[in-house]
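Review form for a predicted model. The reviewer records the input and the model, then writes brief findings.
Reviewer: anonymous (R2)
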Amino acid sequence: MQVHYLSQTHSILNHFLSQLRDVSVQGDSMRFRRNIERIGEVMAVEISRTFDYEPITVTTPLGEKATHKIADKMVLCSILRAGLPLHLGFLNYFDNAENGFVSAFRHHAKQDDDFTIVVEYQAIPEITNKNLILVDTMLATGQSIVAVFKRLMQRGTPKDIHVAVVVAAPEGVAYLEKHLPANCHLWVAAIDDGLNEKNYIVPGLGDAGDLSYGPKL
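Model under review:
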């Protein structure tokens, strides 16, 4: 798996990240969602550099111009619910993409820190021979992304596979490297110190789903 660590090079991405983490800014859920969305837009530009393009000629008011357009078909798939703002950022740029949505959550059967990943709701288009972009805001243990990826692979074989996350733990990156194909690309804005005893990313930014949409039961 090829890892693209975007915040190692200074850009406006780092500015959005700093606001996402700042507890004095996080109280504004609309701003929090918008910053995730902006990061999705930055990532969309970076990922677009890997696509295949085809030549076209467009007619302008004053003549014709030879240019290029994206040749690849693509499917954006997000993991509910924290992945939705990031998904929207990608969709702002890849407006012709098809869209998929999958729910995955940690199930604590014994009401302790041990958990399994449960994948439930899924609305997924055909992915065969298309660029698959799987997005989620946080990559903690990596188990949710791998579980959703395996479910997606039951639907077909994509041309290229991209996983995009905002904040990752090294443990999650290592888990994806072990369980995802070698030709998969991981796009990550920030890689943090690690996981705590509850498998939350430290320093992280808190619960992205709650900060975006309010607390859950």
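Findings: Helices lie at 12-21, 23-26, 29-48, 84-93, 143-153, 170-179, 208-213.
Further findings: The longest helix spans residues 29-48.
Recommendation: see findings above.
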